[in-house]
Structure formats: structure tokens, C-alpha cells
Amino acid sequence: MKAARIRLILAAAAFLGWLSWLAVAVAQKGKADIVSRAQLTEATMFVVADVTADGEGLPNVGVRVVKSLKAPLPGNPEVIEVLNIRKATVPGKGFPGPGTYLIPVVMQGPTAFTIAGLPRSPGYEAAMPDRPAIYPWTDDTKKQLQALGIEP
């Protein structure tokens, strides 16, 4: 009888610990956006760009380059076309509106790019997500890049 009581207490403690961890995870939702490391490995360049929106609230294809982080853009253009940016979202939030964003891109032409998807991995073929991710250019995003050895 005593062993059963101890197992019950341990199971209850583990259950309460699990619920506490879930509560902390829920409380963190809506805080800093976590930059996808997998998406960064697929990107050939990281562009910090000013994104504007059209009348429908969707991002415009032409974005003004603020700076390029991983590799210089060929020809150093001021404006580039991000072909799939109209489908882009900030993870879990949709497109919040005009502003400055970190956009991991793959080159398609001299001034044409697409937002990077996820790389190929065992058992999973690389595919372009329906809603590619871009990230607001905030202090949290800069800290995440610095932790990866990328100087913002």
C-alpha cells in the first residue's frame, strides 16, 4: 500500500510539472519570433529590407534593401523583387504590415529572389512552404543572428 501511494505522488508531481511547463510555453507565445535555423541554412543571402504593403494589406513584390548580411547582393541594387513575398507571413502571425524585415532569400535572377524554404533532410524532400517566413527586424532577431555568428 505504501509503494502505491509513493507512485501516485510521483505521478501527480510529474503531471503537475508537465502542466507547469505547458503554462510557461503558452505564456511565451507572442514574445520574440524565433528565426528558423533550417530556413537560414537553405538561404543563400539574408536581406534586411523595407517592405511596403499594397491597398489589400499584402506586401509589395519590390522591397528596398537596407543591407545584406550573409553575402553581398550582386550589383548592390537598392530595390529587389522577392517573387513569393505576397504569401509571406511572420510565423504564427500573418503579415503584420509595412516595416523592416529580415528576409532569407535564394537568388533567381539579377534582381529577382524568392524567400528560402526548408532544406532537404532524410525522409523529407525540400519543398517551398505555402506561407514562407520573414522576420521583423527587431533587437531579438539581431540577438538570434549574433548567437549564430552572423553580424547584423
Task: Walk me through what this model shows.
There is one protein chain. The chain is of the alpha+beta class. It has two domains: 1-31; 37-147, OB fold (Dihydrolipoamide Acetyltransferase, E2P). Helix content is 28%, strand content 22%. The chain is built from three helices and six strands. The protein has helices at residues 2-28, 37-42, 139-147; strands at residues 45-51, 62-68, 79-82, 99-107, 112-115, 135-136. The chain has a five-stranded mixed beta barrel. The mean pLDDT is 87.
Question: What descriptive keywords fit this protein?
Answer:
5-stranded mixed β-barrel; about 150 residues; elongated; 3 helices; alpha+beta; OB fold (Dihydrolipoamide Acetyltransferase, E2P)
Strand content: 15-25%
Assign the CATH architecture of the largest domain: Beta Barrel
What's the main sheet like?
5 strands, mixed, barrel
Helix content: 25-40%
Total count of domains: 2
Q: What is the CATH class of the largest domain?
A: Mainly Beta
Give the N-terminus to C-terminus distance in angstroms. Answer: 62 Å
Question: Cα-atom Rg, whole angstroms?
Answer: 21 Å
Instruction: Give start-end ranges of low-pLDDT stretches.
Output: none
Write the layout of secondary structure elements.
Blueprint: H1 2-28, H2 37-42, E1 45-51, E2 62-68, E3 79-82, E4 99-107, E5 112-115, E6 135-136, H3 139-147
Parallel strand pairs: 3-5
Antiparallel strand pairs: 1-2, 1-4, 2-3, 4-5, 4-6
